[in-house]
């Protein structure tokens, strides 16, 4: 009897997109259009925020810092969420691009968090009379920044990227415990920060402020996606170059 080989299942579209070679192919033509769209959204958002949005009746024009501070604060948590999912992809699903995505996102998350802390301090001085107060939101966000820095340091501490990916994934999952603290600190403790103005149930902001805030949040999100794609491509090219260098050294 002739054995009939069972054909291997074809990879689904997600598996094909996850392959580093496929990612490099489809991401390249996306970069320029995405960059142009990001710049246009930023231009519209900045115009609304600084020229078409009314001053606050209490804070005056100081409230315009909100259009920089709030999107960066949102991105500081959103980027960590991406890293958290990437950590699960590394440890559970062995996703071929999971550790690349996590390593690319970490410096971006650190920058967004630093910008949130800096803009928050600038906003706090005229509003609260101090640049810094050790309340729940500020302290937990500062801890989040330190977690980002620790993850970046861990990536650079190992020559073996596969080993580093597993260790960083575990640290990322543990560090994720800080995200609920950042999110709900204003509800758990009496702090200088007011309760969230944006919730699933709606917003306390008037449309003249809510619209530019939404546009700026979209602009910063598009910026993250653009920089994440560029960073992933750079990381893949770097690993390819290191592999080729090791192979050349082995043949020498």
How would you describe this protein?
By secondary structure, this protein is mostly helical. Helices cover 75% and strands 2% of the residues. It has eight helices and two strands, in the order H-H-H-H-H-H-H-E-E-H. It has helices at residues 13-18, 20-51, 66-93, 98-128, 136-157, 161-175, 178-188, 207-251, and strands at residues 198-199, 202-203. It has a two-stranded antiparallel sheet. Helix 2 runs antiparallel to helix 8. The radius of gyration is 22 Å and the shape is globular. The relative contact order is 0.15.
What would you say about this model in short?
The chain is globular.
Task: List strands and helices in order, with pairings.
Elements: H1 13-18, H2 20-51, H3 66-93, H4 98-128, H5 136-157, H6 161-175, H7 178-188, E1 198-199, E2 202-203, H8 207-251
Antiparallel strand pairs: 1-2
Helix pairs in contact: 2-8, 3-4, 3-6, 3-8, 4-5, 4-8, 5-6, 5-7
């Amino acid at each position: 009897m002739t054995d009939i080989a069972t054909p291997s299942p074809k990879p689904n579209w997600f598996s094909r997109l996850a392959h580093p070679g496929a990612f490099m192919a489809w991401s390249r033509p996306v970069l320029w259009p995405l960059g142009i769209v990001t710049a246009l959204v930023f231009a519209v958002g900045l115009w609304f925020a600084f020229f078409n949005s009314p001053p606050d009746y209490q804070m005056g024009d100081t409230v315009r810092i909100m259009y920089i501070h709030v999107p960066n604060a949102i991105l500081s948590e959103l980027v960590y969420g991406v890293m958290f999912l990437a950590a699960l992809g590394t440890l559970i699903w062995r996703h071929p691009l999971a550790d690349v995505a996590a390593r690319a996102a970490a410096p971006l998350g650190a920058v967004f968090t630093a910008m949130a802390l800096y803009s928050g301090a600038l906003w706090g001085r005229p509003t609260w009379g101090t640049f810094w107060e050790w309340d729940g939101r500020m302290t937990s966000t500062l801890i989040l920044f330190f977690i980002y820095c620790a993850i970046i340091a861990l990536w650079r501490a190992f020559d073996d990227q596969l080993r580093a990916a597993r260790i960083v994934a575990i640290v990322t999952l543990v560090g994720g415990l800080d995200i609920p603290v950042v999110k709900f600190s204003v509800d758990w403790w009496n702090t200088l920060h007011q309760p969230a103005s944006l919730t699933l149930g709606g917003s306390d902001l008037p449309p003249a402020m809510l619209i530019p805030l939404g546009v700026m949040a979209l602009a910063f999100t598009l910026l993250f996606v653009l920089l994440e794609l560029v960073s992933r491509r750079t990381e893949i090219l770097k690993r390819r170059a290191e592999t080729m260098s090791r192979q050349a050294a082995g043949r020498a």
